[in-house]
Specification:
The chain has a domain of about 140 residues. The protein contains 9 helices and no strands.
Length: about 200
């Protein structure tokens, strides 16, 4: 087993993120973490703290590496509705195919477990949702300026609706929903926003 002074903390945390993402908190024990990382229990505890602290660190890492960069790209995209469409297409492709197919989103998955009652987890879940909603709001604002939205569209509430749709895509894909079904729902929702 590796000693605390002889392993790459960032690399180990990356492995832990994958483990919690794939298996969930409740079904992942410290023994699983030891096996996956090759780092002994005492070194894990002295570096990251207990399992709860390790999970919080994994949530932070996932936010910083997996979620927030994509939200920033969406918010900054100058295309408006095509950017939102692409966001959902890429989300569905990532959730339904490839090495992480059917894993869902670590943050969305956390809403469904007992850990969602932990105030520190709740803060991270709120941060994730608010960043996603803000990115949708910015993209919708661009769409409005470009004349792409139907008259009277409520940008704030629509941003919340689209953020919840993204959460639904993550949950349904984890349950095995086919990509065609998810894409159909997304395209129907977005078509209702467009100008005639």
């Amino acid at each position: 087993m590796a000693d605390v002074k002889h392993f790459d903390e960032a690399a180990v945390l990356g492995v832990v993120v994958q483990l919690f993402w794939r298996q969930g908190l409740a079904t992942t024990g410290i023994r699983d973490v030891v096996t996956a990382t090759g780092v002994n229990r005492s070194s894990l505890y002295s570096t990251f703290g207990d399992k709860r602290q390790l999970y919080l660190a994994a949530l932070d890492r996932y936010l910083d590496d997996n979620a927030l960069p994509g939200f920033a790209r969406l918010a900054d995209d100058p295309r408006g509705l095509p950017a939102i469409t692409q966001f959902f297409e890429q989300l569905i492709r990532a959730r339904c195919s490839g090495e992480r197919a059917r894993w869902g989103c670590l943050m969305v998955n956390a809403h469904t477990g007992a850990e969602s009652s932990d105030p520190d987890v709740q803060r991270r879940l709120h941060r994730h949702y608010e960043h996603l909603r803000a990115a949708m709001r910015d993209a919708l604002g661009t769409a409005h300026r470009l004349g792409q939205l139907r008259s009277g569209a409520d940008i704030e509430n629509t941003a919340g609706q689209l953020a919840l749709l993204a959460y639904g895509v993550n949950l349904r894909s984890r349950a095995g929903a086919p990509s065609a079904e998810l894409n159909s729902t997304v395209h129907y929702t977005l078509s209702a926003l467009t100008t005639p």
